[in-house]
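Hey, sorry to bother you again with one of my protein questions. There's a protein on my desk that I can't quite get my head around. No rush at all, and the record is pasted right below.
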Amino acid sequence: MAIQNDRKNAIKKLKLLTFGSKSNVDTFRAKLDDAFKTVFLPNGVERTEYRYGTVDCDVLSPEIYSSNRVMLYIHGGSFAGGSRAAYRAFCSSLATKCFCRVVIPEFRLAPASPYPAANEDIQTVFKALFTEEQVACSLSAEKGSKAQLPEIIIAADSSAASIACSLIFNLKDRFRACISKVILLSPWLNLSSSSHLISTKKIADEVMSGDVLRKSAGIYTYESNTESPFVSPLLADEEMLKNFPPVFIQMGAKEILLDDAKAFCDKLIAAGNSCLLDVWPDMMFMFQMADEYLHESHLAVDKIGRIVTGDFSGQEAIQIENKPRLEHSLRSEA
Protein backbone atom coordinates (compact mmCIF):
# COMPACT_ATOMS: atom_id res chain seq x y z
CA MET A 1 0.00 0.00 0.00
CA ALA A 2 2.86 2.37 0.82
CA ILE A 3 4.38 1.84 -2.63
CA GLN A 4 1.00 2.48 -4.24
CA ASN A 5 0.58 5.72 -2.32
CA ASP A 6 4.11 6.80 -3.23
CA ARG A 7 3.33 6.28 -6.90
CA LYS A 8 0.10 8.25 -6.61
CA ASN A 9 1.91 11.09 -4.88
CA ALA A 10 4.64 11.04 -7.53
CA ILE A 11 2.09 11.28 -10.33
CA LYS A 12 0.24 14.08 -8.56
CA LYS A 13 3.47 16.07 -8.26
CA LEU A 14 4.69 15.40 -11.81
CA LYS A 15 1.38 16.53 -13.30
CA LEU A 16 2.29 20.02 -12.06
CA LEU A 17 4.92 20.11 -14.84
CA THR A 18 2.21 19.93 -17.51
CA PHE A 19 0.14 22.82 -18.84
CA GLY A 20 -3.29 21.62 -19.98
CA SER A 21 -6.45 23.15 -21.41
CA LYS A 22 -7.77 24.02 -17.93
CA SER A 23 -4.54 25.67 -16.79
CA ASN A 24 -4.07 29.36 -16.07
CA VAL A 25 -0.53 30.57 -16.75
CA ASP A 26 0.02 32.40 -13.47
CA THR A 27 -1.50 29.62 -11.37
CA PHE A 28 0.43 26.98 -13.29
CA ARG A 29 3.75 28.73 -12.70
CA ALA A 30 3.06 29.30 -9.00
CA LYS A 31 2.04 25.69 -8.34
CA LEU A 32 5.02 24.32 -10.25
CA ASP A 33 7.49 26.48 -8.34
CA ASP A 34 5.88 25.75 -4.98
CA ALA A 35 6.00 22.00 -5.58
CA PHE A 36 9.61 21.76 -6.72
CA LYS A 37 11.58 24.60 -5.13
CA THR A 38 13.60 24.04 -1.97
CA VAL A 39 15.30 26.29 0.58
CA PHE A 40 18.32 24.04 1.11
CA LEU A 41 20.23 22.40 -1.72
CA PRO A 42 21.19 18.73 -1.30
CA ASN A 43 24.70 17.24 -1.10
CA GLY A 44 26.48 20.43 -0.07
CA VAL A 45 26.04 22.04 -3.49
CA GLU A 46 26.77 25.77 -3.60
CA ARG A 47 24.70 28.19 -5.67
CA THR A 48 25.85 31.45 -7.16
CA GLU A 49 24.04 33.82 -9.50
CA TYR A 50 25.70 34.86 -12.72
CA ARG A 51 24.66 36.65 -15.87
CA TYR A 52 25.69 35.04 -19.14
CA GLY A 53 25.13 37.66 -21.81
CA THR A 54 21.78 39.19 -20.91
CA VAL A 55 20.35 36.15 -19.12
CA ASP A 56 20.38 35.57 -15.35
CA CYS A 57 21.51 32.06 -14.41
CA ASP A 58 22.10 29.84 -11.41
CA VAL A 59 25.51 28.18 -11.27
CA LEU A 60 25.45 25.08 -9.06
CA SER A 61 28.83 23.75 -7.90
CA PRO A 62 29.16 20.41 -6.09
CA GLU A 63 31.92 19.72 -3.57
CA ILE A 64 33.96 17.81 -6.16
CA TYR A 65 33.83 18.62 -9.85
CA SER A 66 35.89 18.51 -13.02
CA SER A 67 37.20 22.00 -13.73
CA ASN A 68 36.69 21.73 -17.50
CA ARG A 69 33.24 20.11 -17.43
CA VAL A 70 30.02 22.12 -17.23
CA MET A 71 26.38 21.28 -17.91
CA LEU A 72 23.92 23.74 -19.43
CA TYR A 73 20.50 22.62 -18.17
CA ILE A 74 17.45 23.91 -20.05
CA HIS A 75 14.41 23.40 -17.86
CA GLY A 76 11.02 22.15 -18.98
CA GLY A 77 7.63 23.41 -17.91
CA SER A 78 5.49 23.23 -21.05
CA PHE A 79 7.13 26.40 -22.47
CA ALA A 80 5.02 28.47 -20.03
CA GLY A 81 6.48 27.59 -16.62
CA GLY A 82 9.54 26.39 -14.78
CA SER A 83 12.33 28.44 -13.26
CA ARG A 84 15.77 28.30 -11.69
CA ALA A 85 14.13 27.98 -8.27
CA ALA A 86 12.01 25.01 -9.32
CA TYR A 87 14.95 23.10 -10.79
CA ARG A 88 17.70 23.84 -8.24
CA ALA A 89 17.22 20.70 -6.18
CA PHE A 90 17.07 18.34 -9.15
CA CYS A 91 20.01 19.98 -10.91
CA SER A 92 22.02 19.89 -7.67
CA SER A 93 21.66 16.11 -7.71
CA LEU A 94 22.80 16.06 -11.33
CA ALA A 95 25.78 18.26 -10.47
CA THR A 96 26.86 15.88 -7.70
CA LYS A 97 26.48 12.71 -9.75
CA CYS A 98 28.05 14.17 -12.91
CA PHE A 99 30.92 15.88 -11.04
CA CYS A 100 30.33 19.15 -12.83
CA ARG A 101 28.93 22.62 -12.44
CA VAL A 102 25.40 23.08 -13.73
CA VAL A 103 24.16 26.33 -15.26
CA ILE A 104 20.39 26.92 -15.21
CA PRO A 105 19.27 29.92 -17.30
CA GLU A 106 16.15 31.95 -16.44
CA PHE A 107 15.04 32.21 -20.06
CA ARG A 108 11.90 33.99 -21.27
CA LEU A 109 8.65 32.05 -21.23
CA ALA A 110 5.51 31.91 -23.36
CA PRO A 111 2.96 33.29 -23.87
CA ALA A 112 4.43 36.74 -23.12
CA SER A 113 7.63 35.76 -24.93
CA PRO A 114 6.78 33.14 -27.56
CA TYR A 115 9.12 31.29 -29.93
CA PRO A 116 11.93 32.06 -30.64
CA ALA A 117 12.57 34.11 -27.45
CA ALA A 118 13.68 31.11 -25.35
CA ASN A 119 15.87 29.84 -28.19
CA GLU A 120 17.58 33.23 -28.47
CA ASP A 121 18.21 33.37 -24.71
CA ILE A 122 19.71 29.88 -24.62
CA GLN A 123 21.93 30.63 -27.60
CA THR A 124 23.16 33.78 -25.84
CA VAL A 125 23.95 31.81 -22.68
CA PHE A 126 25.72 29.04 -24.58
CA LYS A 127 28.02 31.35 -26.50
CA ALA A 128 28.95 33.34 -23.39
CA LEU A 129 29.53 30.12 -21.45
CA PHE A 130 31.61 28.68 -24.28
CA THR A 131 33.81 31.79 -24.38
CA GLU A 132 34.39 31.82 -20.62
CA GLU A 133 35.18 28.10 -20.48
CA GLN A 134 37.57 28.42 -23.40
CA VAL A 135 39.40 31.27 -21.66
CA ALA A 136 39.58 29.26 -18.43
CA CYS A 137 41.12 26.30 -20.27
CA SER A 138 43.67 28.61 -21.90
CA LEU A 139 44.67 30.12 -18.54
CA SER A 140 45.14 26.62 -17.10
CA ALA A 141 47.43 25.76 -20.01
CA GLU A 142 49.51 28.90 -19.36
CA LYS A 143 50.10 27.70 -15.80
CA GLY A 144 51.73 24.56 -17.09
CA SER A 145 48.75 22.24 -17.34
CA LYS A 146 47.99 20.40 -20.52
CA ALA A 147 45.64 22.44 -22.70
CA GLN A 148 42.11 21.03 -22.79
CA LEU A 149 38.97 21.94 -24.62
CA PRO A 150 35.98 22.74 -22.42
CA GLU A 151 33.50 19.88 -22.07
CA ILE A 152 29.96 21.22 -22.31
CA ILE A 153 26.96 18.98 -21.71
CA ILE A 154 23.55 20.12 -22.96
CA ALA A 155 20.71 18.72 -20.85
CA ALA A 156 16.99 19.36 -21.17
CA ASP A 157 13.68 17.85 -20.18
CA SER A 158 10.23 17.65 -21.74
CA SER A 159 9.37 20.82 -23.73
CA ALA A 160 12.95 22.10 -23.43
CA ALA A 161 14.20 19.25 -25.65
CA SER A 162 12.91 21.29 -28.57
CA ILE A 163 14.93 24.32 -27.40
CA ALA A 164 18.06 22.21 -26.86
CA CYS A 165 17.91 20.67 -30.33
CA SER A 166 17.22 24.07 -31.88
CA LEU A 167 20.36 25.39 -30.18
CA ILE A 168 22.49 22.61 -31.65
CA PHE A 169 20.99 22.95 -35.13
CA ASN A 170 22.05 26.61 -35.07
CA LEU A 171 25.60 26.08 -33.82
CA LYS A 172 28.65 26.14 -36.05
CA ASP A 173 31.12 23.24 -35.92
CA ARG A 174 33.59 25.00 -33.62
CA PHE A 175 30.89 25.28 -30.96
CA ARG A 176 29.51 21.78 -31.51
CA ALA A 177 32.99 20.30 -31.06
CA CYS A 178 32.87 21.13 -27.34
CA ILE A 179 29.48 19.48 -26.70
CA SER A 180 30.39 16.07 -25.32
CA LYS A 181 26.82 14.86 -24.74
CA VAL A 182 23.18 15.82 -25.09
CA ILE A 183 20.92 14.47 -22.36
CA LEU A 184 17.17 14.52 -22.96
CA LEU A 185 14.63 13.49 -20.33
CA SER A 186 11.09 12.64 -21.48
CA PRO A 187 11.59 14.83 -24.57
CA TRP A 188 8.87 16.53 -26.60
CA LEU A 189 10.06 15.97 -30.17
CA ASN A 190 7.09 16.52 -32.46
CA LEU A 191 4.52 19.28 -31.93
CA SER A 192 3.38 19.38 -35.56
CA SER A 193 -0.01 18.43 -36.96
CA SER A 194 1.58 15.24 -38.31
CA SER A 195 2.06 13.95 -34.76
CA HIS A 196 -0.49 11.35 -33.72
CA LEU A 197 -0.25 12.75 -30.18
CA ILE A 198 -1.41 16.12 -31.47
CA SER A 199 -4.01 14.87 -33.96
CA THR A 200 -5.61 12.23 -31.71
CA LYS A 201 -8.34 13.73 -29.55
CA LYS A 202 -7.95 11.59 -26.46
CA ILE A 203 -4.53 10.14 -25.78
CA ALA A 204 -2.82 10.15 -22.41
CA ASP A 205 -0.67 8.30 -19.92
CA GLU A 206 -0.56 8.73 -16.14
CA VAL A 207 0.94 12.23 -16.40
CA MET A 208 1.09 13.48 -19.99
CA SER A 209 -1.62 13.91 -22.62
CA GLY A 210 -2.13 15.09 -26.17
CA ASP A 211 -4.11 17.98 -24.74
CA VAL A 212 -1.02 19.20 -22.85
CA LEU A 213 1.05 19.11 -26.04
CA ARG A 214 -1.60 20.95 -28.06
CA LYS A 215 -2.19 23.65 -25.43
CA SER A 216 1.51 24.17 -24.79
CA ALA A 217 2.37 24.33 -28.49
CA GLY A 218 -0.48 26.78 -29.03
CA ILE A 219 0.89 29.32 -26.57
CA TYR A 220 4.49 28.73 -27.65
CA THR A 221 4.15 29.52 -31.34
CA TYR A 222 1.93 29.63 -34.42
CA GLU A 223 0.75 26.28 -35.77
CA SER A 224 2.71 26.82 -39.00
CA ASN A 225 5.96 27.04 -37.00
CA THR A 226 5.41 23.62 -35.44
CA GLU A 227 6.37 22.05 -38.78
CA SER A 228 9.88 23.47 -38.37
CA PRO A 229 12.63 21.19 -36.96
CA PHE A 230 13.52 24.08 -34.64
CA VAL A 231 10.21 23.41 -32.87
CA SER A 232 9.73 19.73 -33.77
CA PRO A 233 13.22 18.13 -33.89
CA LEU A 234 11.80 14.81 -35.09
CA LEU A 235 11.16 16.49 -38.45
CA ALA A 236 14.83 17.35 -38.98
CA ASP A 237 16.34 15.90 -42.14
CA GLU A 238 19.60 13.97 -42.39
CA GLU A 239 21.59 17.07 -43.33
CA MET A 240 20.52 18.89 -40.16
CA LEU A 241 21.35 15.85 -38.04
CA LYS A 242 24.88 15.41 -39.39
CA ASN A 243 27.59 15.73 -36.72
CA PHE A 244 25.01 15.91 -33.96
CA PRO A 245 26.67 15.31 -30.56
CA PRO A 246 26.09 11.95 -28.80
CA VAL A 247 22.58 11.79 -27.35
CA PHE A 248 21.31 10.02 -24.23
CA ILE A 249 17.52 9.85 -23.84
CA GLN A 250 16.03 8.67 -20.56
CA MET A 251 12.33 8.11 -19.98
CA GLY A 252 9.66 5.81 -18.60
CA ALA A 253 8.17 2.87 -20.46
CA LYS A 254 4.64 4.14 -19.79
CA GLU A 255 5.06 7.45 -21.61
CA ILE A 256 3.04 8.33 -24.70
CA LEU A 257 6.19 10.18 -25.85
CA LEU A 258 8.21 6.96 -26.16
CA ASP A 259 7.47 6.24 -29.84
CA ASP A 260 8.72 9.68 -30.88
CA ALA A 261 11.89 9.14 -28.86
CA LYS A 262 12.50 5.79 -30.58
CA ALA A 263 11.98 7.42 -34.00
CA PHE A 264 14.35 10.28 -33.16
CA CYS A 265 16.99 7.85 -31.94
CA ASP A 266 16.69 5.88 -35.19
CA LYS A 267 17.09 9.06 -37.25
CA LEU A 268 20.19 10.11 -35.33
CA ILE A 269 21.81 6.71 -35.80
CA ALA A 270 20.89 6.66 -39.51
CA ALA A 271 22.67 10.03 -39.85
CA GLY A 272 25.83 8.52 -38.36
CA ASN A 273 25.45 9.71 -34.77
CA SER A 274 25.34 7.95 -31.40
CA CYS A 275 22.08 7.73 -29.46
CA LEU A 276 21.29 5.68 -26.37
CA LEU A 277 17.63 5.28 -25.41
CA ASP A 278 17.26 4.33 -21.74
CA VAL A 279 13.72 3.16 -20.93
CA TRP A 280 12.72 2.44 -17.34
CA PRO A 281 10.00 -0.20 -16.84
CA ASP A 282 6.75 0.93 -15.23
CA MET A 283 7.95 4.54 -14.95
CA MET A 284 6.11 7.68 -15.96
CA PHE A 285 6.90 11.10 -17.47
CA MET A 286 9.79 12.88 -15.66
CA PHE A 287 9.92 10.27 -12.89
CA GLN A 288 13.45 11.53 -12.11
CA MET A 289 11.93 14.59 -10.41
CA ALA A 290 9.89 12.62 -7.88
CA ASP A 291 12.81 11.31 -5.84
CA GLU A 292 11.01 11.64 -2.51
CA TYR A 293 8.48 9.07 -3.71
CA LEU A 294 10.30 6.80 -6.20
CA HIS A 295 13.47 4.83 -5.58
CA GLU A 296 13.95 4.62 -9.36
CA SER A 297 14.45 8.39 -9.48
CA HIS A 298 17.71 8.09 -7.57
CA LEU A 299 18.89 5.18 -9.70
CA ALA A 300 18.12 7.08 -12.90
CA VAL A 301 20.17 10.11 -11.82
CA ASP A 302 22.99 7.75 -10.81
CA LYS A 303 22.89 6.35 -14.31
CA ILE A 304 23.07 9.79 -15.91
CA GLY A 305 26.17 10.37 -13.79
CA ARG A 306 27.77 7.21 -15.16
CA ILE A 307 26.95 8.25 -18.71
CA VAL A 308 28.56 11.67 -18.20
CA THR A 309 31.70 10.46 -16.43
CA GLY A 310 32.13 7.15 -18.24
CA ASP A 311 32.24 5.70 -21.71
CA PHE A 312 29.58 6.76 -24.21
CA SER A 313 30.03 4.08 -26.83
CA GLY A 314 27.59 1.96 -28.76
CA GLN A 315 24.24 2.67 -30.29
CA GLU A 316 21.93 0.67 -28.05
CA ALA A 317 20.77 1.33 -24.53
CA ILE A 318 22.69 -0.73 -22.01
CA GLN A 319 21.27 -1.42 -18.56
CA ILE A 320 23.90 -0.19 -16.12
CA GLU A 321 23.97 -1.81 -12.69
CA ASN A 322 23.16 0.86 -10.14
CA LYS A 323 25.34 0.50 -7.06
CA PRO A 324 26.35 3.18 -4.54
CA ARG A 325 29.44 5.05 -5.61
CA LEU A 326 32.06 6.59 -3.30
CA GLU A 327 32.43 10.10 -4.71
CA HIS A 328 35.67 10.98 -2.89
CA SER A 329 37.38 7.94 -4.39
CA LEU A 330 36.80 9.22 -7.92
CA ARG A 331 38.76 12.47 -7.76
CA SER A 332 40.99 11.52 -10.70
CA GLU A 333 38.14 10.16 -12.85
CA ALA A 334 35.94 13.20 -12.32
